[in-house]
Amino acid sequence: MSAIVTVTLNPAIDLTVALDHLTPGEVHRAHSAVSNAGGKGVNVAACLADWGVNVSATGFLGAGNVHPFETLFRDKSVGDGFIRLPGETRINVKITEPGGRTTDVNLPGLPIEADLLPRLNDRIRALEPSLLVLSGSLPAGLSPSIWADMASHWQQQGVRVLLDVSGAPLQEALSREELLFAVKPNRDELAAVMGAIPDDAALLAQARALHRNGIGLVVVSLGSEGALFVSEEGALYAAPLKVGVVSSVGAGDAMVAGLCAGISEDASLERLARLSTAFAAGKLRKIGPHLPPKQDVEALASAVSIAAAEDWIMYGRLSGEQSS
């Protein structure tokens, strides 16, 4: 039995290329190029495995280049629930520069037909999740309602669902009457589906409205400006930690992993805020879906500055104390 299962419908092999500076239209000489099995749910599962949580990952992979995924799952002891399909998983190019700026070039994924989804639900059922993470983009061939349909189905089965999607799939999910357990958009993703969010007070009001409508945990990530957390315990703001940035790719997925880790230990809202912020900061120090050692992440969590959301709005953002 696996307590946490992640679902990735549009995985990718992430090719991270390091440059001194990206100048469009010019020829560049890269310092390095590193390939990692990726996709949002894969990244979440990998970080959870580093934390020591029992986790499985499922979805669809192209059989033609499955080796990086099988190696990652074996090395991290992630349960491999992926369904293999003819063809190859897409490759995404991540161009990184000193200071953490990253330029993404994402290729289209394997087309997935809707008649494959019953097989996926059967695979999820066999993994027996208590917490199901649905995250990432949709491949060609699937309706934007797919994530909302899956969330509704599994919550009716008594499974808690954490949703991390954007655009039309997020809009569809937020329009449903069924209650989501947790959702983690960033500010821009939330504004794209809910309307303009002119300031932090409006952002807090929107997050609280989602919670009142039945979403148990609402987390709005603000990138380098921290994150907002709303649950029945109240509303908190977590300041960003000042860490050396190697790559920002997957930091949001690491935050989701931190939320899952906290949920698995029935953590308080403050602990969830500290842990998810620390996961994201730890991931910034790594290329690929990896965390620093557990004791380092706990040290980061202890250093996170937390404020009541109202104080954050009234007095301005806090700054993290940790640096490296």
From TrEMBL:
Q: What is this protein called?
A: Phosphofructokinase
Q: Where is the Carbohydrate kinase PfkB domain?
A: 9-290
**Taxonomic lineage:** Bacteria, Pseudomonadati, Pseudomonadota, Alphaproteobacteria, Micropepsales
Q: Which CDD domains match?
A: FruK_PfkB_like (cd01164)
Catalysis: reaction(s): beta-D-fructose 1-phosphate + ATP = beta-D-fructose 1,6-bisphosphate + ADP + H(+)
Q: Which GO terms describe its cellular component?
A: cytosol
Can the keyword Nucleotide-binding be found in this entry's annotation? yes
From the UniProt record, which GO molecular function terms apply? 1-phosphofructokinase activity; ATP binding
Q: What does the similarity note say? A: Belongs to the carbohydrate kinase PfkB family.
Stored PROSITE patterns: PFKB_KINASES_1
